[in-house]
Structures are given as structure tokens and as C-alpha cells.
Amino acid sequence: MPVAARVALILLVAAGGALGAPPAAAATTTTAKTTKAKAKAKAPARGTGDDATGAAVLADIDDAFALLVRDDDRTHAAARRRLARAARSFDDLRVGDDVLRQALVGDANKPWRGRAYERVLSLVTLAALDVERGRCDLALPTLRNAALHDARVAPAAHRGDSDAVVVFALALRCLADGDESVGGAAAAADVARARDDLRRAVAAAGGGDDDDAVRAVERRVRDPGARLVFTGWGPAFARAGVHGERLELQPRDEDDGIAAVARLGSGAPRGDAGLHEAWAAQATLAWSSTTQATAVRGRPFDSVRAARARDKDAAAAAGQAALAAAWAAPPTGWTTTTLVGRGVQATGGAGLLVVGAALDARADDRFVAALPGRVWIVAP
């Protein structure tokens, strides 16, 4: 049998196996798919409002940190609104009702809610802006939420203790001093518990496990002139690997620029007045975004991406092998049975190639470009 005829017959059998539904059934399926597509187009996307990819959450956080470069009530109010809106979606990771999509969704296509340290710093900043306007009643629940997000990835080297000093320093500030929104200082037991949390965080961050280190942080955060200050930029990320399944962290300058973000004390000056001098002399480093991004356990999705990359390679290799075997001339010559068998084999090989192509092993390289590099508690 001529080669062209063999090729035509194999393709015909393969196509018949894949598309062999009766015309009526095919028409019904097409109609059902069309109806489903129209309904899907009308339905709102899952996630935050109509934002199924999380792009709006990322934009809110990015805009909020960019606004905080200017220290005035108007920009602070705008930044607070954006952070509060983003924070409401941090635990909403739904990707739709389609079970197949839930199983196959890639890391790069899931709803973006930020990495743990991006969420924690967003919540901390939101709480600090509430402290600034005398709303510790709002700041304390936000700080508890920040502590929970941080606890999910706490460094194992410190028994799971958080090293986010800024979270517990602000909580101690609200509990020990209070404001009108919480009716003044909290009970002594609550203050002691907050102080103990701060002690463990200072030790986990490498600041020492002694009373002097804790007192230094507490003294600064409770100073009437205390301010929360940002410097530099958090890390960036880029994909690596054959399928983009790995992420490479690219540190950025954490000391590039300085901006006062929130006044923690009633006597703190507005803007950058005396900021550089105070920062150089009386500042406590309470957060490093690069440290937080690198000193935690690997995310569960890291192993999923690696497995998907291996599966993509295995499916591609098996599919190509099946197609090559289907094209090879049989030792007994071409018969109807051989053609049917080779058609099934070609269909299976093509199916493996499709499955391999559908697996998305790419890492999520989205990040908050305006995220600060370091957070300081500065007192005059």
C-alpha cells in the first residue's frame, strides 16, 4: 500500500475514534457547549468582585504603598481604603465551580493574593494607619490577622515563632497605651501576653532573648514621637527552569530612599521633619521583606509545580513515542486490523501530547513592585 494511502487511513481511523459521535449527538453537544459558554460569559468571575485573577488585589496593594510616599491625610486615607479592600480577599482563593479547572489550575493562573510576607506587611501597614487615626479597635484585629498569616510560614528554626517584630510591637503599643476607641490601656494580663509575644519575635529575628532588647523596642514604639518608617524595596521574582517552574528571587536595594508612613505617637511630627537624623540615631529594624521572602519554608505549590514539570516531560515523551510507533511499518504488512490498531495508538499519542501541553507548571512571578524593603520604628 502506498505511503500516502497508509497515512490517510491512519489519520481517518484516528479522527473516527476521536470524533465518532453520531451527527445528532454532536449537534446536541455543540448546542449544550454554546449555551454553557453564553451562561459562563454572563456570570461574574470568581475571586474579588469581577476579578478572578487577583489583578485588582495586586493593583490595590501596589497603589497603596506608592501613595504612602506622600505623608498627608488625604493620601493616607486613600491608601487605607485600598489596603482594606485588598485584605478582605486574602483568604478567598476560589477558582470557580469547575472541578477540572480546580484540579488543573496553575500557580501562575490562580487568583493572586500575594505571598505571605506581602499579605503580612499590607495588614501591618493598614493597622499602623488605623493607629495613626486613633482606631486601635480596628488595628488590633488586623494585627491578629497579620500574625495568623505570618504563622503559616514561620521559620522552623524558631519552633514556629514569628520573627515579624513589627506585628507584636504595634499590638503592644495599642494594648499598653490604648486610645479612646478601646477605652485606654488593656488589662495587665493582656499587656504581659503581648510583651511575651514581642520577646519571642525579637529572639526569632536575631535580636537577642533578653529584657534589654525587648525594652528597647517597647520604648521606641510607645514613644510619643514614634513613627513607622519604610526604606528601600522588597525583592522581585523571575521564572527559571525549562517550563518556568522555578522562581529566582532578585533582591533589590532595601535602603534606597526613606519615607515616614504613619505617626504612632501623638507627638510625632508630620512628614520627613527630622526623619533622617532620628532614623540614624534611634531606629529599630522591625521587618525586612527580603529576609521574610527567603527565611521561610517552601510553599506547598513548589512541589506541585516540580511534579507538573516532570509530568509534562513524561507526557510529551510518551506521546511522541506512541506517534512514532504508529507511523512505523508493521512487520506483517498493512491490514485493516493493523490500521485500526495504529489509529488508536496515534489517538492515544496525540492525547498525551495535548495533556502535556495543558499542564501548566509555570511559577507565579507576580509581586508587589512598590513593596517596601525594610520597616523601622523610629523615635526622636
Task: Give an account of the 3D structure.
With 380 residues, the protein is an alpha+beta fold. It has a domain at 55-302 and 362-378. Helices cover 55% and strands 8% of the residues. The strands form two sheets. Strands 4-1-6-5 form a four-stranded antiparallel β-sheet. The protein has a two-stranded antiparallel sheet with strand order 2-3. β2 and β3 (246-250) form a beta hairpin. α4 crosses α6, α6 (116-132) runs antiparallel to α7 and α6 packs parallel to α8 (165-177).
How are the SSEs ordered, and which strands pair?
Elements: H1 3-19, H2 23-42, H3 55-67, H4 73-87, H5 99-104, H6 116-132, H7 136-151, H8 165-177, H9 188-204, H10 211-221, E1 227-231, E2 236-240, E3 246-250, E4 258-263, H11 275-281, E5 283-288, H12 289-294, H13 300-327, H14 336-358, E6 374-378
Antiparallel strand pairs: 1-4, 1-6, 2-3, 5-6
Helix pairs in contact: 1-14, 3-4, 4-6, 6-7, 6-8, 7-8, 8-9, 9-10, 13-14
